[in-house]
Amino acid sequence: MCGIVGYIGKQNAFPILIKGLHRLEYRGYDSAGVALISPENQLNIYKAKGRVSKLENSCKSKDVSGHIGIAHTRWATHGEPNHSNAHPHYSQSENLALIHNGIIENYVVLKEKLIQKGYTFQSETDTEVLVQWIEYIKESNKTDTLAAVQLALKQVIGAYAIAVIDKQHPDHIIAARKSSPLVVGIGENEFFIASDASPIIEYTNKVIYVEDEEIVILSQSGQPKIISLSNVEKTPQITQLEMDLQKLEKGGYPHFMLKEIFEQPRTLRDCMRGRINVDCNNLALSGIFNHKEKFLKARRILILACGTSWHAGLIGEYILEEFCRIPVEVEYSSEFRYRNPVLYPDDVVIAISQSGETADTLAAIELAKKAGAFVYGICNVVGSSISRNTHSGSYTHVGPEIGVASTKAFTAQVLVLIMMALAIGKERNSISQKQYEQILSELDLIPEKIKSILKQNQAIEDLSKIFTYAHNFIYMGRGYSYPIAMEGALKLKEISYIHAEGYPAAEMKHGPIALIDNEMPVVVIATHDATYEKTISNMQEIKARNGRILAIVNKSDDNIKKIADYIIEIPQTEECLGPLLSIIPLQLLSYHIAVKKGRDVDMPRNLAKSVTVE
């Protein structure tokens, strides 16, 4: 879950590396470091605990010259966040420096062998073991660095994206990947490497997505060379990026999260563009129609995801079963991959991930493919591992999401699942044409309805002041609103560090109601739906125990105004589209509570954006 960046070319490497680290800091921000080979062939490593800005400040008096370098921003796995454990790591001779994203599972065994050979270690990391192992192989086999990397990686168990520089060969960067993202940018007589394209787009829109068990050799003279671990040379496939650099900036907002919340009317419109026609009477999802027989004959649908994407999957379960009449199961990818699931060749598996690089979801995809299931991916990042390793899929098209707490990616995932349900339902004749067109017409109105909710931002900010005291929250909902209760609770705990849980409203009396008192805020999604009257009854149970209720209601709802202590109004819509509206005030509420508590909203403690390790 770390961010790696590298540069080789004619420019000074340090400013490019630092800017790249700032762009990648959402992937990890426990510590940061940079390794540079100076014009005098000195290999200099500088590191700092904390944010990239601390590294940048600490380097002001250092020699940061050089046209080749690698850099890293860390989310700690092995070893606490400190200077010693920060990347890059030297080899014993200090001839090699290495950065790494991933986990080396057999590092303890390798480390013990190296200690027996007289190697010493300066850190607790698996990464230092890897660079020492590469040097050991290089010296014991009297080979070059490339061959040593190949041999070392064949003996490594785990996931990695690495970059290595060697002061004895100061005109090369060697990079490799397995189960962790890596992209190469191709400029004019210069090359870039990074965990994703965000540090690269400023300099070039031509990239190579490195595949598993491939090694890339970049030199100041010549074209990129790609070889496999077994020494088979491969032809680089160059892709042109369509990323907008301006979307990587805050655009005047105080935080990326707030910017991304406010972008949702546009991002949902972008997600629908080209898929729903102007008359709102037809929907085209090529990923579905190109494989419609798979969906028509599906025995069941399995949805695999983690975190916020799992909540989107729960909403997908409701709507797919309602409109397609196919049994749906939603599973955490991390649990699915480690049990012995029953899979059939006529199963359809939907894998959801914002980054398209979620390690557990990728592993679950491979398990499903081996069982013969058809795998459909939903992700945001073009060219990501999930997009390349699924049979078909849909992009969400929301642009880069930098805030660690997902907002616009979540609503777009829900929207894609809604469109999938409508497309499959129409093909299966399990939804009437009237209802199909009615929902499409209402979908077209959703962006404007979200805009009307966003106009309440100041009122929600004022309301948030009341809740900064709270140590615990309960969120409640029924039907389509139950996953929204869980997602709202997750947003609050992620960025404010307030403990919060989402429950089906009817389950309150089966345990959680014991927690209710006048110090426990309860957020209830109480919009007009099939369970509206039942939800009112659940709210009355809370009020009878002196609970304080904040209710999300439809406009002109006088019934709940008499019960709730506070309300936030949202427009009415089709029940199945309700989550696209009801989540917006919960995102804003979480954001403003966190800001009022002085939290770092975009980079909450212990979290990283792209979970590329188990």
Description:
The structure is a single chain. It is built from 20 helices and 25 strands. By secondary structure, it is of the alpha/beta class. Strand 12 and strand 13 (225-228) form a beta hairpin.
End-to-end C-alpha gap: 10 Å
Major sheet summary line:
8 strands, antiparallel
Number of helices: 20
Q: Which strand order do you get reading across the main beta sheet?
A: 3-2-4-1-10-9-11-15
Give a concise summary.
With 614 residues, the protein is α/β, with parallel strands linked by helices. Helices cover 36% and strands 23% of the residues. Helix 19 links the parallel strand 24 (548-554) and strand 25 (566-570).
List the defining traits of the structure above.
eight-stranded antiparallel sheet; globular; alpha/beta; Glutamine Phosphoribosylpyrophosphate, subunit 1, domain 1; Rossmann fold; seven-stranded antiparallel sheet
Helix and strand layout, with pairings?
Elements: E1 3-8, H1 13-24, E2 31-37, E3 43-49, H2 52-58, E4 68-74, E5 89-90, E6 96-104, H3 107-116, H4 126-140, H5 145-154, E7 158-166, E8 169-178, E9 183-186, E10 191-194, E11 206-209, E12 214-219, E13 225-228, E14 233-234, E15 238-240, H6 256-262, H7 264-272, H8 286-289, H9 292-296, E16 300-305, H10 307-324, E17 328-332, H11 333-336, E18 347-353, H12 359-370, E19 374-379, H13 385-389, E20 392-395, H14 408-427, H15 433-454, H16 457-464, E21 472-477, H17 481-496, E22 499-504, E23 521-525, H18 532-543, E24 548-554, H19 558-561, E25 566-570, H20 578-596
Parallel strand pairs: 16-17, 16-18, 18-19, 19-20, 21-22, 21-23, 23-24, 24-25
Antiparallel strand pairs: 1-4, 1-10, 2-3, 2-4, 5-6, 6-7, 7-8, 8-12, 9-10, 9-11, 11-15, 12-13, 13-14
Helix pairs in contact: 3-4, 4-5, 7-14, 7-15, 10-14, 10-17, 15-20, 16-20, 17-20
